[in-house]
Design brief:
The chain is of the alpha/beta class. It has helices at residues 2-17, 19-40, 57-64, 77-85, 110-174, 177-225, 241-271, 274-279, 285-313, 323-345, 351-356, 358-361, 363-367, 379-382, 389-403, 411-431; strands spanning 48-53, 69-73, 91-97, 100-105, 227-232. It has a five-stranded mixed β-sheet, with helices on both faces. Helix 7 packs antiparallel against helix 9, helix 7 runs parallel beside helix 10 and helix 15 (389-403) runs antiparallel to helix 16. The relative contact order is 0.10.
């Protein structure tokens, strides 16, 4: 047990002398937890923008009243389709016939697709309820008219009965046939007039009832016959969250393994003395860096091909753009990761220290590359993503895979990745100076 104590004391003494290891052990977890707090406490509410073509005013108004749904009106289906292709809207809804609607979803985010479906369903329900309320109001007015008509009919019948009774009394007092005949004629006339009023009132009530029935049937038929057809610009109804993040995950795995392998390999070259002997020759530092980039670049190409083909072939991920474009972007990201790994290896004294760079360099790339929607983050937090290469690679692959964009339309993302590669390569050439002995 005494020997174990001595061994432990020696290891602790070595750790205390390694200030960098201690700093990474205590600072890195705090940094990661802070980044996670920034990301996962952000406003994660998803909002959608929906274009409408020929939608009834009451349905469009009800849809616009749904929380987190913004409605924009388009004059034609072509205009709505262009807005969807340009990623200005998340879906568009068009009325194709009476009580027939067609909804086309971008479907690049399953959460937004579900929100549009739920929002449109709620809008149709709200519009139906409003129509039913209007029908009930009309029925109430009709019932009021019918009640007034019945009262009028009852009054007319009462007046007719009173006139008939008065005419009969006058005939008995006079005792003459002529007078009796005249009274009978008058009573008959009064009775006929009252009957006419009663018939007219009855006809009016019947007409009102008929209108109400027709309105109710029309309203009920409209609610029962509404049909919605769903279409998807990318994927299908089973497209889920994985399909959204797969372009970013693809780039992440390429970046992570190339970064780790290249950094470890160059560190081994240093620790075994191979790099020192190479630097002792007249070979230029730029040529040494280029040699490492070329050799590991071949491995990066093979790795990229394997990852892309596996994702497409075995996971059935749909690529609407060019498969070649996806491979080019992944290969460019792999070269950036290679240069990054070589640069970090110049600061590490051992494989253990090289592993400690992973929380600092690699993990933040996951949080700020688009797996968590960047538009839900604060502006100053969002700015962190602009200095991470995986952000641009993930965006470029998303545009190719989900939106069918070509390489020529991804000039900014590709230019930034090339800039990363050039800057990191220049830093690697400069970093070799510290190891050259002659």
């Amino acid at each position: 047990m005494r020997h174990a104590w001595f061994i432990a004391r020696r290891v602790i003494a070595e750790l205390l002398r390694d200030k960098r290891t201690l700093a990474l052990m205590f600072v890195a977890p705090v940094l990661i937890m802070f980044l996670m707090k920034l990301v996962f406490t952000a406003n994660s509410t998803t909002g959608v923008t929906v274009a409408t073509v020929g939608l009834p005013t009451n349905v469009r108004t009800a849809l616009n009243d749904v929380k987190h749904v913004t409605v924009v009106k388009r004059g034609t289906e072509q205009a709505a389709k262009r807005a969807l292709a340009d990623q200005k809207v998340d879906a568009y809804i068009e009325k194709t016939a009476a009580n027939r609607y067609r909804v086309t979803y971008a479907n690049t985010d399953a959460t937004k697709t579900a929100l549009v479906k739920a929002g449109f369903g709620a809008a149709l329900t709200a519009a139906g309820v409003k129509t039913l309320q209007q029908t009930v109001t009309k029925m109430g007015k009709t019932i009021t008219v019918m009640s007034a008509t019945i009262k009028k009919l009852s009054a007319a019948q009462a007046v007719a009965a009173a006139k008939a009774a008065g005419a009969a009394g006058g005939s008995a007092a006079a005792g003459t046939g002529a007078t009796s005949g005249a009274a009978g004629t008058a009573g008959s006339s009064a009775t006929t007039e009252a009957a006419s009023d009663s018939t007219a009132a009855g006809d009016s009530a019947g007409a009102a009832t008929s209108d109400t029935t027709a309105t109710t049937k029309a309203s009920t038929g409209k609610a029962a016959k509404v049909k919605v057809t769903n279409r998807y610009r990318y994927g299908n109804k089973d497209t889920g969250f994985f399909d959204k993040i797969v372009p970013i995950l693809m780039g992440f795995f390429v970046f992570f393994f190339v970064f780790l392998i290249s950094g470890m390999a160059l560190l081994k070259e240093r620790t075994t003395g191979t790099l020192d002997r190479l630097l002792a020759t007249p070979v230029r530092r730029g040529e040494i860096v280029a040699g490492y980039m070329l050799s590991y670049g071949v491995l990066a190409i093979i790795q990229t091909v394997i990852i892309v083909l596996t994702t497409v072939g075995f996971m059935n991920v749909e690529i609407t753009g060019s498969l070649f474009a996806v491979m080019v972007i992944n290969f460019l990201l792999a070269l950036v990761a290679l240069a990054f790994g070589i640069l970090m290896s110049t600061f590490a004294q051992s494989e253990f220290q090289m592993m400690q760079f992973i929380p600092i360099i690699v993990i933040p790339q996951v949080f700020f590359s688009g797996i968590v929607p960047l538009d839900s983050l604060a502006d100053w937090v969002k700015n962190i993503s602009y200095v991470l290469p995986l952000t641009y690679a993930g965006n470029a692959m998303t545009q190719v895979i989900m939106h069918g964009k070509g390489l020529l339309s991804l000039g900014l993302d590709i230019a930034v990745l090339l800039l990363f590669l050039a800057v990191l390569s220049a830093l690697n050439v400069r970093g070799m100076r510290r190891y050259r002995k002659v």
